[in-house]
Design a protein that fits this description.
The structure is a homodimer. By secondary structure, chain A is of the alpha+beta class. In chain A, about 45% of the residues lie in helices and about 15% in strands. The first copy, chain A, binds a DNA duplex through α2 and α3.
Chain lengths: ~325, ~325
DNA sequence: TGTTAGCACTTGGGCATGTTGAGTGCTAAG
DNA sequence: CTTAGCACTCAACATGCCCAAGTGCTAACA
């Protein structure tokens, strides 16, 4: 039996199964695809594929469905990236318009991606460890409460309330502000922990306690892990795509709600810069996603975008959509 | 037939049905509750209740289940608020500890509430129209890009990127900053639209175009509707509670994702300051929630907290939990 | 050696039929 | 007004049957 045809058969099975959601048999296969052979031959091929663990039969006399391993081979060796439709391109392009507020863009990105793929879309906030300090502000909220605001040149603004031990004077605060600002403006956020102590050390002794607290606040704000958030959209697609095929939706929702889980998942996926990465079924590190696949890729300076859906999904189209969206995202955010 | 007993029967039906998820019959009813009468009598009462539209039979020979109207009566006239368990009180108390960052608190609130009730918990960000301007900052990101930051005395920080028509000088920006700040510091956010025009008018002519843009930015930031966001947790509970009773989960997820829908829903609900409001099944303005109920109440200065779950839910316990959480929330955020 | 036709075999799903039991409504007596 | 009794209804379950889809195997074929 020829190797190319075997792959062709696997490809046909995957495509038919994704389309029909039903086990696919040898006869239907030869009818729908013009493989130049008879169903008997296909049966032989399928027996081999089953032996190799690429497909499986739910019960004795039913068609075959792809296994995780089968999907894996399909994705790695067979599937060709489908070009996007004109309408899809247009939809992605329209992302370029509108305000360039990061939050807005990401929001629209996940919506778009979930609509394009009919899956749950997920995007990680852009990494900012390369970002530079643009401005810092201390605002007195109450006699003993100071709001610390840190603004990066990327336009990201983070803030935190800190409590002082004793009453804080406005003049003192302004003095400290200019001291800090003079030392840290223009430095990388990631370097703040190294720079800040010296600023504190140079402060007048009576302000040092306060300065220390402010420094702590700034440092925690610069901690990029604070930015490790994800945004998602399209959870309703989970319910729709499984209306007659009850993938247990509960565990998946749980995983999606646990940002930690999703972040791990995304960052565990390789970061092949030119292609998208796919994690299929039990390949996922999280048990609740045993029947789900994740298709993701990096954008900009290393954060991830992707989708999550049932293992039975249209990989070529999905992968194309994810890749295209990631590219546009990189372009907009200036990767 | 006595009116009090009729209500008692309704109450028993609701409680049993919520507990067992199965239509409840006359015989089971007399066994499980010590109503002092026989099943035949209950049958008569049930016939009356059915005539009044308070309960219904799925088919000829099955028990009865409460209708929306039945739940309504149950909630309005029968159910007594259950006291919370010690463990629940403790859990809520622990909310008081930890950082008083608004985001953190709300985040923990929804998590807690969803765990307490086993439903989807929803919280609206606190209203800020009474908030005062504490500080405003203009930061030059690029020659033609300015980041406008508005800080309120509540500690809320909002920002927006605006594009200028021509290159912006740093000195000009600083000048405008002090002008704006001098005029708007301490005024209510809600009043900004009235105050800002005069500030623009008093600017030197060559800066007026820029000033106008900045004013627009500030105004849009002060727009409280921008703050009308909601936070939620526990969507996985939707799947769990309906494992053997397929409430169509799809439309519900859709509603939850459409913040607009949820916001309308919450604000449409009355704001009885001392009690919680319940919206049952088809009472909801949104079709997708025809089989769901919302239990919500106000907190702080008028924003809402609540939960969403199947109409078949344990109203007394849920209402107690929502009320308790809302009270603590008001206390922490200083209602 | 790979392909094909033919065929016996397996099996889940659909369908008709029968049975059961929970639950009802009604009536007549207490 | 309550109750016991009874005939009736009907979903849920079980049983048996058949059918179509699909398989694996074997023997013939190129």
């Amino acid at each position: 039996m020829s190797e190319p045809r075997k792959l062709e058969v696997l490809r046909a099975i995957v495509e038919d199964y994704v389309h029909s959601r039903e086990p696919v048999g040898s006869k239907a296969l030869v009818e729908r695809h013009h493989l130049g052979v008879s169903s008997a031959t296909i049966r032989n091929d399928m027996a081999v594929l089953e032996e190799e663990g690429l497909i499986a039969a739910p019960h004795t006399s039913a068609g075959r469905i792809p296994t995780d391993k089968g999907y894996r081979l399909f994705v790695d060796r067979i599937s060709q990236v489908k070009p996007l439709s004109a309408a899809e391109r247009r939809a992605i392009h329209s992302l370029l318009e509108g305000p360039d507020d990061v939050d807005d863009i990401l929001e629209r990105t996940v919506r778009l991606l979930s609509q394009l793929t009919n899956q749950v879309a997920v995007v990680q906030y852009p990494h900012s460890h390369r970002a530079l300090v643009r401005h810092a502000e201390f605002v007195l909220l109450a006699p003993k409460q100071v709001l610390v605001v840190l603004i990066a040149d990327t336009g990201s603004v983070v803030q935190k309330v800190i409590d002082a031990v004793s009453d804080v004077g406005n003049e003192a605060l302004m003095l400290l502000r200019s001291r800090f600002l003079g030392s840290i403006a223009g430095t990388q956020l990631a370097l703040l922990p190294q720079v800040l102590p010296s600023v504190v050390a140079l402060c007048p002794p009576d302000l040092r306690a306060l300065a220390q607290r402010l420094a702590n606040g700034l440092e925690s704000l610069s901690d990029t892990s604070r930015e490790e958030r994800i945004l998602m959209a399209g959870t309703a697609n989970l319910a729709r795509s499984n209306v007659d095929f009850p993938l247990s939706i509960g565990p998946v929702l749980e995983a999606l709600e646990e940002q930690v889980v999703m972040l791990r998942l995304l960052s565990d996926m390789g970061d092949d810069p030119r292609g998208v990465t796919v994690s299929i079924g039990r390949e996922n590190p999280y048990d609740g996603l045993a029947e789900a696949s994740v298709v993701a890729t990096g954008y900009g300076s290393g954060a991830k975008v992707g989708i999550l859906g049932p293992t039975r999904m249209d990989y070529p189209t999905t992968m194309a959509a994810v890749r295209a969206v990631a590219r546009y995202l990189s372009r907009i955010l200036g990767g």
